[in-house]
Q: What sequence folds into this?
């Protein structure tokens, strides 16, 4: 697969989502209920889907504005330092009296992960905060929204995007059924194979294949649906067509934690550059492939130069 990057294109991305401190332990195996597993290695760092996506987009050359909420604590101060260093505008970030979100992440030797989250300050992100962010949404090429924040903020952000005619991209993670009024506000929806049936309110034994899920979701939004499938690539449902975008094989799989955020950031940037959806998804697949090969989320988010090198090696 050959994906050519476009240079010299001005892009602006607005991101509404989460920030949290990620407390990661690499373990020999995930513990069962009541079991204690020793031999783990601990690390901490910045996380949260919204912040990861904002940093990812900025590293790929976009001008990025972020709306999230953090506490008046050390984690919150570290977040502002991260955004300053990465060139992400945090002028509208809410400072709450509640603690900054914390996520506890267990990573197995295969790279698979399990995550538990204490939302803290994010629970206070509301429609008023989104209203103060409207000018940033209106001036953006793409609005990216993820779902580690209250539903009120998700809906308000998508509605602001629709009203300002900014292209909306919803990364539905962590997945939950969407309110009916949300569906027509989404231009691009990016669930993985696990999240797709949850969005549709289906039980575990629903029996639908990925293509059927993609079509069902696309019928609800009337826009574009991209179902990410890890090592199997992605399915893209747009109009009457469902197409397959092949994966970009990873050199090695070390940690899958930030892969979805890296994919989303790269997809938003590629769409803002004006790429057709299939090519934008191909570009995003390269970003996800890079990310799973490096431990930690922020260290693994690629720069444009790193993606160019990977794309060139696959040409």
A:
């Amino acid at each position: 697969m050959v994906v050519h990057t476009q240079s010299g294109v001005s892009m602006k991305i607005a991101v509404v989502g989460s920030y949290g401190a990620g407390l990661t332990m690499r373990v020999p195996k995930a513990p069962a209920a009541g079991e204690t597993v020793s031999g783990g290695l601990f690390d901490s760092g910045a996380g949260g889907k919204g912040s990861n996506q904002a940093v990812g987009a900025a590293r790929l050359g976009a001008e990025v504005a972020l709306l999230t909420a953090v506490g008046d604590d050390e984690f919150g101060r570290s977040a502002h330092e991260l955004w300053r260093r990465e060139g992400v505008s945090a002028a509208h970030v809410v400072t709450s009296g509640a603690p900054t979100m914390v996520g506890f992440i267990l990573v197995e030797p295969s790279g698979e992960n399990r995550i538990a989250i204490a939302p803290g300050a994010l629970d206070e992100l509301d429609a008023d905060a989104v209203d103060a962010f409207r000018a940033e949404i209106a001036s953006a090429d793409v609005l990216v929204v993820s779902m580690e924040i209250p539903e009120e903020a998700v809906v308000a952000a998508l509605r602001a995007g629709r009203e300002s005619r900014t292209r909306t991209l919803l990364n539905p993670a962590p997945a939950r059924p969407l309110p009916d009024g949300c569906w027509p506000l989404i231009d691009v929806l990016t669930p993985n194979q696990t999240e797709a049936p949850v969005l549709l309110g289906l039980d575990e034994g629903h029996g639908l294949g990925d293509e059927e899920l993609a079509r069902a979701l696309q019928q609800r939004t009337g826009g574009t649906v991209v179902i990410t499938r890890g090592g199997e690539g992605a399915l893209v449902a747009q109009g009457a067509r469902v197409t397959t975008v092949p994966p970009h094989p990873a050199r090695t799989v070390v940690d899958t934690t930030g892969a979805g955020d890296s994919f989303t950031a790269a997809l938003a940037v590629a769409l803002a550059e004006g790429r057709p959806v299939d090519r934008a998804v191909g570009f995003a697949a390269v970003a996800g492939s890079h990310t799973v090969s490096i431990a930690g989320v922020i260290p693994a988010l690629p720069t444009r130069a790193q993606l160019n090198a990977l794309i060139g090696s696959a040409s």
In short: Confidence is low (pLDDT under 50) at residues 1-7. The longest strand covers residues 20-26.
